[in-house]
Design a protein that fits this description.
The complex is a heterodimer. Chain A is mainly beta. Chain A contains one helix and eight strands; from the N terminus they run αββββββββ. Chain B is elongated, with a radius of gyration of 15 Å. Classes of the chains: A mainly beta, B mainly beta.
Chain lengths: ~140, ~140
């Protein structure tokens, strides 16, 4: 069986997290790439995307996240992929993942995948640097089982 | 401008070998991701992705694999990429990577390999006496 995405998003228009969840809820569109943006001004982790995982579902997200300090003096790229699963009556669990980060700042900006058992969401966080403004963008693809 | 795939398959479509090979030979179409699904009930070798490579050709594929036990109690994530080549003889895997992460108590896995003289294969192995659902997303390019 083969399924391909057919949805087109306007160029340069980031989707919101709610739009993202509505979009990927359609199986035929589940392969469609999505893009989200964000900004940090400190070293507090920012949840750049979050996807609700229902019971008896398995979600995989693969993509890249890019970050750049507002004065363009430092940047980050990370490639990531993860599979989350949730059994009947259970919590969302990150079954397997990778997140390879490369950056050239004097600090330690980073990105990470995780599962939130409170909201039952799969998510990715980016962490900037204290007293610095960083702009972030993630481009990724989803699939469900 | 952002361009996404415009080809739509319906869920009842069966991806035949001929259809797949037509698909991956269209230079633009081949960049669109295609999905492969399979169910395993044991630990035997199974071909999740099989692509025929003609003589005097190369095949580059990359993508990822998602798998989950049928009760969603265990899961797997894998990323893979590899270059196959075939001269006048049999196919060979010139170079590849396949990184698997999973949280089961067994050893479900994904391997890049070949099958027969002409088939590039992404092989999976499930777990004995367990039903696992598998899905792969794969991009491909053919070099001739």
């Amino acid at each position: 069986m083969a399924i391909y995405a057919s949805k087109t998003w306007a160029d340069g228009k980031p989707v919101t997290i709610s739009e993202l969840n509505a979009y990927i809820g359609v199986p035929i569109n589940a392969l469609g790439p999505f893009m989200l943006t964000g900004q940090t001004t400190n070293a507090t982790p920012l949840r750049l995307w979050a996807i609700a995982v229902p019971e008896l579902a398995c979600l995989t997200v693969n993509g890249h996240v890019f970050g750049m300090r507002s004065d363009s003096s430092a940047a980050l790229i990370a490639r990531f992929g993860g599979t989350w699963r949730r059994a009947s009556g259970g919590n969302v669990i990150l079954a397997g993942s990778y997140c390879d980060v490369v950056e050239d700042s004097a600090g330690a900006p980073t990105a990470a995948l995780a599962a939130d058992t409170g909201t039952q969401e799969a998510y990715l966080t980016v962490t900037g640097i204290a007293a610095q403004t960083w702009n972030w963008r993630v481009c990724a693809m989803t699939q469900w089982l | 401008m952002a361009t996404y795939a415009t080809k739509t398959w319906i869920s009842s479509d069966v991806l035949t070998g001929a259809l797949l090979n037509t698909h991956v030979r269209d230079p633009l179409d081949a960049l669109q991701p295609s999905i492969y699904t399979l169910t395993t009930t044991d630990a035997a070798n199974a071909g999740l992705i099989d692509i025929t490579v003609p003589v005097n050709s190369g095949l580059l594929i990359w993508g990822w694999v998602q798998a989950v036990r049928s009760n969603y109690a265990d899961g797997l994530h894998a990323r893979f990429g590899g270059m196959y080549r075939r001269g006048a003889g049999s196919i060979a895997l010139a170079g590849s990577y396949c990184v698997v992460a999973e949280d089961s108590a067994s050893a479900p896995t994904v391997t890049m390999t070949t099958n027969g003289t002409a088939t590039a294969r992404v092989r999976i192995n499930g777990v004995a006496a367990q039903t696992w659902l598998w899905k792969a997303v794969c991009m491909a390019q053919v070099l001739t």
